[in-house]
Amino acid sequence: MRKSIEFMSCPQPYRVYQRSADNIASIDVSGELSKPINGILEARLYKKPAETLSRFDWQQIETDGRTFSGQLENVPVGGPYTLELRIRDNNTTRVIKRIPGLLVGDLWILAGQSNMEGCGKLINLEPPSKYVNALYFGDYWAIAKDPLCWFDEAVEPAHWVTPESEKRAEAAKRDRAFRDFGGGLGVRFGKEIYKATGIPVGLIQCAHGGTSLAQWSPKLKDKGGESLYGSLLRRVNLAGGKVTGCLWYQGEADAMDFGGKDYKELTKDLIENLRSDLSRPDLPFLYVQLSRFHTWDANSPRAAWNKVQNDQLLLEREMENVAFAASIDGTLSDPIHLDSLSQRKLGVRLAKLARKLVYNESNIELGPRPGKIEFIDNTRREIKIDYNCVNGSLMPARDIRGFLVEKDEQPIAITSCKRGSDGCSVIIKLAEPAPNGANLWYGRGLYPVVNLTDKAGFAAPVFGPVTLG
Q1: Where is 107: in which H helix or E strand?
Q2: Which of 25, 65, 177, 458 has its CA 20 to 30 A from that of 265?
Q3: 332: exposed, middle or buried (C-beta count within 10 Å: 0-12, 13-18, 19+)?
Q4: What CA–CA distance (Å, rounded) separates 448 from 292?
């Protein structure tokens, strides 16, 4: 096949187009030929050469002999599609371009800091799928494969690790050669969505490690690609301007550097501005409650870490169309980053939340959420915690770990902790009556021992303090 195209602006290989409410999308076709033609330029779309979609068989594309522009309308959800261009001149035809891997499905933003970036060691990775593609920081589409983040290949300065332009290309080359981490949750999330719905997924990677909510502030959007929020908006616009939802994993920086101050309020502001800027007042926002942090530092941010976790629990109750997945049962690849296996598990959990909130699967619950908490009798030695949104029942039935009752930092011994007879509650028995003003926690500290889940594999979230009357 002779090369006859100097460049082609649209579409890029492996691009994912956001489906409409009617489960279709339009694919723009435009570019410039390396030399003028006298014939007719035509395009077609197919899954396999023998499976040309009847209404996407060869169609004429408008051209002035050098530039061309057209559109394939009403392309149904699915793929991968290959777009083919040919020139028809007298009795001869010549294919001049094939663009593979195109999908029509749902676009999801991946945003936050390092655990959304993906920092699991490059072992036990989720295998890629031809139904899950990603928009990488270099503004190109490809099949989604960990690592999804290559910062020194980014177009926007907000993501550069190497600020010196003359050094950046070499730094990017070294990163490709020596990177040993990058396992994340996005690939598994996309595969789970496709498996459950048959809808392909496009991941718009926007996360950046070590970043605080102040750095993600919508107030910085006028800085464009020099700000994380501005970069996110530009990348969404590059992908077509419409998305299905946002996945968010962030909070470590705010807990460690800012004491968790105003975390819930700042996250609300981010969500509200994102919904406004994308003209989606109901944009689904799915996030992760902070996991563990392993440190021996006596000045560790335990209180702030638990505050951020509790703010993340409360946020879900205060906003519509938001939901979170707990990750406190995750295992780490270093002191603060989830390993690849735990990232894959989180991908499943977030996909289940999406299946409930976005794809309307009514048989899925959000996962255990603490509800009514009360003493069973007047002895103040038995506490019942009712859980809502449980899939099936709580697990395990006995020897539940992770609860703490304390007053003024003095713990009260727990003699037993088991599942209630209704399957959706926990009964705690204390060695002595709980004094007025005692506090109840689940998962307190930076590296708690916890084991409460439901039958769908959702971990119970960290909460506390809850003051017992």
Answers
A1: strand 92-112
A2: 458
A3: middle
A4: 8
Question: How far is 110 from 132, CA to CA, in rounded Å?
Answer: 13
Domains 5-102 and 104-357 belong to one CATH topology: no
Sign, Cα dihedral of 174, 175, 181, 183: negative
Closest CA to 443 of 349, 340, 307, 271: 307
CA dihedral over 53, 58, 62, 66, signed as positive or negative: positive
Q: Which H/E stretch holds residue 307?
A: helix 302-318
Determine the average pLDDT of the residues in 268-297. Answer: 97
Omega of the bond leading into 465 within 30 degrees of 0 (cis): yes
**Closest by CA position to 308, among listed 261, 378, 373, 342:** 261
**Secondary structure class of 121 (helix, strand, coil):** strand
Tens digits of residue pLDDT in 2-56:
455 656 788 999 999 999 999 999 999 999 888 888 889 999 999 876 666 666 8
- CATH architecture of the domain 5-102 equals Sandwich (2.60)
Structure tokens at 8: 């082609």
Side chain identity at residue 366, one-letter code: L
Q: What does the alpha-carbon distance between residue 278 and residue 280 come to, in Å, rounded to a whole number?
A: 5
Rounded CA-CA distance 185/26 in Å is: 29
To which H or E segment does residue 75 belong?
strand 67-76
316 CB-near residues (< 8 Å, 6+ apart): 322, 323, 324, 366, 369
β partners of residue 455: none
Query: How many residues can be counted in the chain?
Result: 469
Q: Where are the domains of the chain?
A: 5-102, 104-357, 369-467
Return d(Cα 231, Cα 19) in angstroms, integer: 23
State the fold for domain 104-357. Rossmann fold (3.40.50)
Class of domain 369-467: mainly beta
Q: What pLDDT does residue 4 have?
A: 52
**Sign of the dihedral through C-alpha 156, 161, 164, 168:** negative
Higher pLDDT, 106 or 51: 106
456: its two tokens: 């769908």
